[in-house]
Amino acid sequence: MIQKGQKIEKAEGRLGVLIPGLGAVSTTFMAGVEAIKQGIAQPVGSLTQLGTIRLGKRTDKRVPAIKDFVPLASLNDLVFGGWDIYEDNCFESAVKAGVLEKSLLDQVRPGIEKIRPWKAVFSQDYVKRLQGPNVKTGKNKMELARQVMEDIENFRKENGLSRMVMVWCGSTEVYLKASEAHASLAAFEKALCDNDPAITPSMVYAYAALSMKIPFANGAPNLTVDVPALTQLAQDKGVPICGKDFKTGQTLMKTILAPGLKSRMLGLSGWFSTNILGNRDGEVLDDPGSFKTKEESKLSVLDQILQPELYPLLYKDFHHKVSIHYYPPRGDNKEGWDNIDIYGWLGYPMQIKINFLCRDSILAAPIVLDLVLFLDLAQRCGMRGIQEWLSFYFKSPMHAPGLYPEHDLFIQLMKLKNTLRYLRGEDLITHLGMEYYD
Ligand SMILES: NC(=O)c1ccc[n+]([C@@H]2O[C@H](COP(=O)([O-])OP(=O)(O)OC[C@H]3O[C@@H](n4cnc5c(N)ncnc54)[C@H](O)[C@@H]3O)[C@@H](O)[C@H]2O)c1
Fold it and tell me: 280 CA to middle of ligand 1, Å?
């Protein structure tokens, strides 16, 4: 375990950001970073850029910005590279994604136009609705992993990078359960060589990154690094990993509201969530296999937060339904409806309705930025394996075997900030506060 207040290596040199999947989320992230660097937009939604952290007693009035408290890489030191099955450069891809206005994209065009996707590791067996020309070929999946490693090594050399981080922003793959092929590194490497269908494209990228000691975050609900073979590889190589599935939109709202209902001991009889979404992600999720992966991720949060086994009277049999409808006219501007049937004193029923006109990629982009900076920090601190303190950013947070994941957004934030305090040798904040009344 790392020690409280131990030495943290400085964030010196350039930090390479490797992204499989140059679609709506990742181009919104990269274009956004360029716009922020130029001073034409603000990093709203990013904890690393705007968040503060209280230190010591409330009366001490020590509240530095997070980015001044821990040594994070500067936005000016980020260099982007990535893979996609389409040949569009990042400017073209961002225009097609339709998240950011053309006038904003024109201003950052030189910065993002030069990012051209490397050939992807891809198979339609895992994402049924997509097909593209920019795809690697090789005799087996191990060979494809080696090609990914070559891309990374070339990128490192060409840009004189001192460190790198990889964030999966590719499509959601079909539902898959961990199996024998994922049980150990030896089995995994054999499966790579044998072209075993249990090894998905996202796992090939993750294996390449971890083998090169590059931290990995998983923005989709795919299994990817959440299997024993790869968590062990991360441990052995001393690399931090985290996932899965960026927490945005409806699930973000759920993990804000559900802890509040539970803290007031209000009962829940049903939570019905539905969405319309018209971007490429919506198209991919229109396939039942990819939707199943997403559904599992979205459904798990309420059970964990509400703990029906501890509160059977309030939460034993609540009905939870989630659906996503692909509806092209909306593009990236998703609309979500929640109907929440709750009950209060003496069992009297009440209803809450939420109509969230959200912009998915606008909510996801600052998450990508924070994960890049925090994973890089974690690596410079010598933190390895699953980074549970980054649960704050995920719908299905990875966690140690035998633990349940923590979904409550407020506990997650406290855990994140206490981790930063610990790293810098500051007292953890318990919110007890008795000392103010002695
Ligand atoms: N937008 C959000 O708020 C949000 C929230 C949580 C999770 N996610 C997940 O993040 C991912 C990206 O979302 P998006 O809205 O940017 O989707 P998108 O469809 O716009 O972009 C995904 C890109 O990945 C590419 N791709 C697919 N498989 C690939 C592979 N094997 N290698 C390289 N590229 C590949 C696709 O061609 C596409 O360009 C999805 O898995 C989505 O479910 C998004």
Answer: 8
- Give the neighbor-by-neighbor strand order of the sheet with 335-343: 319-326, 267-277, 335-343, 349-357
Q: Is 227 helix (H, G, I), strand (E, B) or coil?
A: coil
What architecture does CATH give domain 250-357?
2-Layer Sandwich (3.30)
Which mutation among 129, 171, 326, 358 tests ligand 1's pocket best, with the greatest number of atoms within 8 A of CB?
A: 171
pLDDT in tens, 205-224: 999 999 999 999 999 999 99
Q: Where are the domains of the chain?
A: 14-246+362-423, 250-357
Q: For residues 196 and 145, is the Cβ–Cβ distance under 8 A?
A: no
Mean pLDDT calculated for residue range 292-319: 90
The structural architecture, per CATH, of the domain 14-246+362-423 is: 3-Layer(aba) Sandwich (3.40)
CA-nearest of 182, 177, 169, 170 to 127 is 170
Give the chain's radius of gyration (CA, Å). Answer: 22
The sign one gets for the Cα dihedral 301, 24, 199, 291 is: positive
Contact of 104 with 40, CB cutoff 8 Å:
yes
Please tell me the number of Cα atoms within 13 Å of 23 on its side-chain side: 25
Cβ contacts of 314 within 8 Å, gap of 6 or more: 262, 265, 266, 267, 268, 306, 308
Instruction: Give the separation between CA 352 and CA 406, rounded to whole angstroms.
Output: 24
The region that residue 397 occupies, defined by phi over 0 for left and psi between -120 and 50 for alpha, beta otherwise, is beta
Q: Give me ligand 1 centre to Cα 57, in Å.
A: 43
Residue 292 has pLDDT above 90, yes or no: no
Structure tokens at 300: 């798990």
